[in-house]
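Sequence in, structure out. First:
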Amino acid sequence: MVVVPVLAGAGPALALHKDDGEVPGPSLGTGLTILYFVVIPLGVFLIISGLCVLPSALRRPRYRPGKPWTFDPLWFRGPQEPQTALQSARAGETARGGASAEW
């Protein structure tokens, strides 16, 4: 039972006519050679380069130092009523150690 699949798999190795590479096959031609070795690798390179540049090209303009701030203000993780929170806030101590050496 096991011998049949092994012999069937070894069939190409047991072939009588072995190709040792002495007889050259048909030539590709200039056009196909340029397509295979120049156009396709260049196309793959351009696609990968485009995919690398695409995220930064789609990004919206960012703030740059020295330019005016043109974006709306945003409140991150603050209270729901910022004006009320600011009015009820009390001043804290400013000297809390660090480089000033005021522990």
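Second:
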Amino acid sequence: MSAAGVPVRWVPRRPRPATYDVLVLAVPDDAIARESVRLLRSGVRAGCAMHLSGALAADALREWRKTGAVVVSFHPLRSFAGRSGETAAGADVAIEGDASGVALAGRLARRIGARPWRIAPEAKPLSHAAAAAAAGGTATLAALAAEAARA
């Protein structure tokens, strides 16, 4: 995002009290709630708390609302291999959450060259499963075909 002119600061492993405009939790799905509580207890605050999970709703960040933050999920529908220079440019981004968080996430997606679209919270698990199956390509297709044949 820094390449798109969006300033990025990393929260240290042992954070001090600080306030961020947007805090992005880029952690595994099963760590979102735990890391939220850890950051909140350390005095970290944000105007908007965002996670990148494709399967979990923005409500996974509900503890942030107690501090006045809005919450949103922002899930680029593409794979990242961890290589330098990878971006979400050109990717579709599934967004849901609090209205002002959704608006902010939409602006952020467009600024980094992505295409935002709204998704209903209850649709996220199925949408994520479909995206994961599509990303798996031939191996997933073969496994699904074999399972269907067995059935």
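Remark: The beta strands are 18-25, 44-51, 70-76, 92-97, 115-118.
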